[in-house]
């Protein structure tokens, strides 16, 4: 039986993370688990308390908030498993989830990353993810298959290759991780798992989904409140993803599309919603690319603490 290292990242959500840890106690059907929790610079350090309350788990404290990619990279560096299972701290697992994902990986060594089917936790039976469509590199748009639909098994036949894994739950083989490396930390928020999938593919592996395996995600069905932080990184990283992964001619076409279609659309929406403060944020996200290389570690925006 192959060893699985579960890695999750906490940032100012100790109660949510503890719900996950209790959920993981129910996966005893899989015999060889290692659980690693990275606290990503939370204002109050929960690690000393957790080490007392959850013996047998590994807790790591980062004094800085290194983002989704950085926190997971810290955890993976400590992991000893044959497979590394990265899950959001706001997820809850099902008892046979890990075994089913491992079985898929074992049956096909060509799989680099695999994700399970994802349901919204607060909306029983509602799908969040059963795979992604391929990316249109001219627009940097793709679709999450099945999202917001009731799960009637209509996508269960999609077992196999998919456009991208879902960042809420991704199992990667140690070999694929060692060849492709960790996630690019300069994304900080959004698009980092898509970029990672591209690098895993370039390393010679496939990205798969297994709809027979299920995890629950507590992310709200509603879009939620937009913030300047989210607007900045969603726009900056959309450009960054194409800049890092598309040929120069394709990137040029994307830039024309972004400036002629996306920017006017966003500005009109900001004005219509009286979100005038987002207008300079959008242009700040664009300007970042004139001053920074694609691998720059300069976030360009104040990071949350």
From TrEMBL:
Enzyme Commission number(s): 2.4.-.-
Membrane-spanning segments: 251-268
GO molecular function: glycosyltransferase activity
Class in the EC hierarchy, top level: transferase
Domain Glycosyltransferase 2-like: 5-168
Keyword set, alphabetical order: Glycosyltransferase, Membrane, Transferase, Transmembrane, Transmembrane helix
Family affiliation: Belongs to the glycosyltransferase 2 family.
Listed PANTHER family: GALACTOFURANOSYLTRANSFERASE GLFT2, RHAMNOSYLTRANSFERASE WBBL
Name of the protein described by the UniProt record: Glycosyltransferase family 2 protein
């Amino acid at each position: 039986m192959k060893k699985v290292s579960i890695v999750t990242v906490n940032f100012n959500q100790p109660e949510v993370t503890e719900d996950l840890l209790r959920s993981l106690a129910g996966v005893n059907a899989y015999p060889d688990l290692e659980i690693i929790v990275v606290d990503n610079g939370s204002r109050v350090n929960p690690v000393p308390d957790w080490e007392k309350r959850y013996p047998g788990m590994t807790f790591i404290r980062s004094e800085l908030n290194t983002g989704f990619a950085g926190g997971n990279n810290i955890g993976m560096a400590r992991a000893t498993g044959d497979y590394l299972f990265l899950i959001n701290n706001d997820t809850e697992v099902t008892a046979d989830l890990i075994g089913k994902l491992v079985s898929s990986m074992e049956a096909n060594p060509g799989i680099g990353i695999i994700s399970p089917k994802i349901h919204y936790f607060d909306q029983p039976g509602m799908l969040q993810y059963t795979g992604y469509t391929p990316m249109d590199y001219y627009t940097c748009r793709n679709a999450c298959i099945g999202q917001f639909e009731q799960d009637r098994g209509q996508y269960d036949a999609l077992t196999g290759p998919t456009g991208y894994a879902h960042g809420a739950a991704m199992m990667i083989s140690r070999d694929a991780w060692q060849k492709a490396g960790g996630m690019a930390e300069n994304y900080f928020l959004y698009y980092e798992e898509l970029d990672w999938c591209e690098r895993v593919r370039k390393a010679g592996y496939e990205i798969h989904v297994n709809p027979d395996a299920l995890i629950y995600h507590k992310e709200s069905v509603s879009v939620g409140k937009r913030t300047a932080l989210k607007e900045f990184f969603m726009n900056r990283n959309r450009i960054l993803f194409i800049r890092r992964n598309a040929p120069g001619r394709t990137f040029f076409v994307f830039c024309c599309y972004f400036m002629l279609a996306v920017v006017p659309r966003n500005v009109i929406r900001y004005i219509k919603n009286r979100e005038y403060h987002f207008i300079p944020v959008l242009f700040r996200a664009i300007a970042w690319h004139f001053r920074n290389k694609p691998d720059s570690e300069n976030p360009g925006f104040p990071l949350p603490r």
